[in-house]
Amino acid sequence: MKTIKLNQVTKIEGHAKLHIIVDNGIIKKASLKKWDDLPHITSRICGICSPVHAITSVRAVEDAFNVKVSKQSRLLRELVLIGGTLQSHVLHLYFLTLPDYIGYNNALEMLPKYKPEIERALRIKKMGNMLVDFLGGRDIHPIAVVPGGLSRIPEQKVVNDLLKHLNLIKKDAKATVELFTSLKYPEMSHKKLLAALSGGHYFDSNKIIMCDDKQCYPSRDYEQHFNEFFQKGSTAEFVQIDGKSYMVGALARMVNNFNALSGFSQKLVKKHLIDKTSPYMNNVAQAIEIYEGILRCVHILENLQLKNEKLKPINVRPAVGIGAAEAPRGILFHKYSFDKKGICVSANITTPTSQNLLNIQEAIKQRLPAILKYSEEEIKLEIEKLIRAYDPCISCSTHFLEMKLEKNDE
Questions:
Q1: Angle at CA 80, nearest 5°, toward 107 and 156?
Q2: Considering the entire predicted model, what is its pTM?
């Protein structure tokens, strides 16, 4: 018998391992990991979106083994999801988007003149960290979210501390809405399909895929309509819905789940999200989501009667599981296949950034004619604003944009 172990697989993000056993020329084993390892591994895909990767992974495992968790577990997980959204949105808005619109290269340059704004952003980030840490076990890569429920139930003192800080942070969330609705965004109408999960609460939907306020199909059937492919010259994966590009993220969520928002947020949407065909309005939608998230957390925690619960039992079997959740930047899918021992034999993860890529490409092509008269530096800034409006994964956005411009004015 020959055993081959790849402890590190290079040229991919993260630290994948593979275990292969060959017995007399016959492959006995070629597996990734068991079902209970997957949430911990997949949360490492991203340091920003680790809470939603962990929860989506858990949902896929529970879907495969037909596990239904308690209402308390669903609510506590929703709080972790909101914490992750606060962490991500505030970083994107204050540290990546805002410098573009007030004439700075980065937040450090802003600090002398915009210290109150930076401090506000850090307070909201800390609030997101507290939600994920206190309920998920760590402020990144949460470990308490496991198949069958949560591995620990918070004490009432934790709930009281969170409520105290959430109520204090409301004024910062309100100021965030005021700031990002006051910025002057470029005028652009890029009418494309807006897709989001629905069928639950605003931050906790996963049953149905909605497209422009019309029900498309169950999220479990996504592979029948979502076509994943590669383009020549790119290592990134692209996704289409039934052959068409589409946009996911905060703007898509507000269009498709308007009725699930609180009355206060509905008023903000009606007042500030007039043109829902502009990708730049995704920034405004994220600012509103920060406020909505704070309100939702307060509502859940004020009405939560905590009780000790055991994890739901897991009965392993050969099965396929699909999990879906709304990540800060759009829909996230995890799909796993398991053998009879619960070993994951195949996995497919579809991220929101890959779903937005084709739409970003098309939006840039539409935007370019209006800005070609600008200098090369100005063109670069305008294109960066547009790309950033989609809030692509931060590990991508911090390293762009290498632009090569060839003009022939003859």
A1: 115
A2: 0.89
